[in-house]
Amino acid sequence: MESEETLFERIGGMDAVDATVDIFYSKVLADDSINHFFAKTRIKTQARKQKAFLAYAFGCPMGYTGKSMKRVHARMNINEDHFEAVISHLISALDELNVPQNLIDEVVVIARGVKGDIVSA
């Protein structure tokens, strides 16, 4: 029996994840409604962590050794609007890379799956 390809494989592997995260952070940093969350962040380091997390979340066979979403976002006072802005930038980045809508929809389901660990306000 053949195994189904993971979202990671169907989206284009690490090259696609890398490109998505790079475009995503350019959009996030240009958004005054959320860029303050990254004012003291080393973006290259943050992007590397985000790439590892997304690769793992999309089914890459590597292990994820980063902190939990709940722990990372605790006390940041991220509200529903902040979360939706991030989701919209993720969708926009994927769209810019011509990722098919059905795969974008899968990404959104995964992203919304961690909402309870991120939104606190």
Strands, total number: 0
Shape: globular
CA(first)-CA(last) distance: 46 Å
Strand count, sense and barrel status of the largest sheet are: none
Q: Beta fraction of the residues?
A: under 5%
What does the average pLDDT come to? 92
Textual characterization of the structure:
It contains 7 helices and no strands. The mean pLDDT is 92. With 121 residues, it is an all-alpha fold. Helices cover 63% and strands 0% of the residues. The longest helix is centred in the first third of the chain and has 17 residues, at 13-29. Helix 2 (13-29) packs across helix 3, helix 2 crosses helix 5 and helix 5 runs antiparallel to helix 6.
Entry summary:
With 121 residues, the chain is mainly α.
Core attributes:
single chain; 121 residues; mainly alpha; 7 helices
Topology:
Elements: H1 7-11, H2 13-29, H3 43-57, H4 69-73, H5 80-96, H6 101-113, H7 115-118
Helix pairs in contact: 2-3, 2-5, 5-6
